[in-house]
Amino acid sequence: MIKTFQTLDLYLSAFLSLQGISPNLKINGNKVVFLFDASDQLYKLLADFNSNISIPVTDFCTAIKILRGQMITMRGQR
């Protein structure tokens, strides 16, 4: 069984997506949950995010907009 990491944090999810780890999205009640396969790379990236590493701002904003669009689409399909 593959362990998963789940979060409601759009900004963390956008950061991970920008780093090449795309989330699976799931609706849980009225919220959209971001699911990631747990791995050593994921935990390193979580540490990087919490350490406030530098990333390209425009790319990060684009990743946020893409995930937000996916969230809105999922909510509209319910």
Strand-helix topology:
Blueprint: E1 4-7, H1 10-18, E2 24-28, E3 31-37, H2 40-50, H3 57-76
Antiparallel strand pairs: 1-3, 2-3
Helix pairs in contact: 1-3
What descriptive keywords fit this protein?
78 residues, alpha+beta, 3-stranded antiparallel beta sheet, 3 helices
Describe the structure.
The chain has helices at about 10-20, 40-50, 55-75; strands spanning about 5, 25-30, 30-35. The protein has about 80 residues and is α+β, with helices and mostly antiparallel strands. The chain has one domain (about 5-75). Strands 1-3-2 form a three-stranded antiparallel β-sheet. A hairpin with a 2-residue loop joins strand 2 and strand 3. It starts with a strand and ends with a helix. The model has no long low-confidence stretch (mean pLDDT about 95).
Quick overview of this protein structure:
The chain has 78 residues and is of the alpha+beta class. The protein contains three helices and three strands.
Provide mean pLDDT, rounded.
Answer: 94
Task: Give the beta-strand count.
Answer: 3
Overall form: globular
> Helical segment tally?
3
User: How are helices and strands ordered from N to C?
Assistant: EHEEHH
* Helix amount: 40-55%
Distance between the termini: 28 Å
Outline the low-pLDDT stretches: none
Largest sheet: 3 strands, antiparallel
| Rg, Å, rounded | 13 Å
Strand order of the largest sheet: 1-3-2
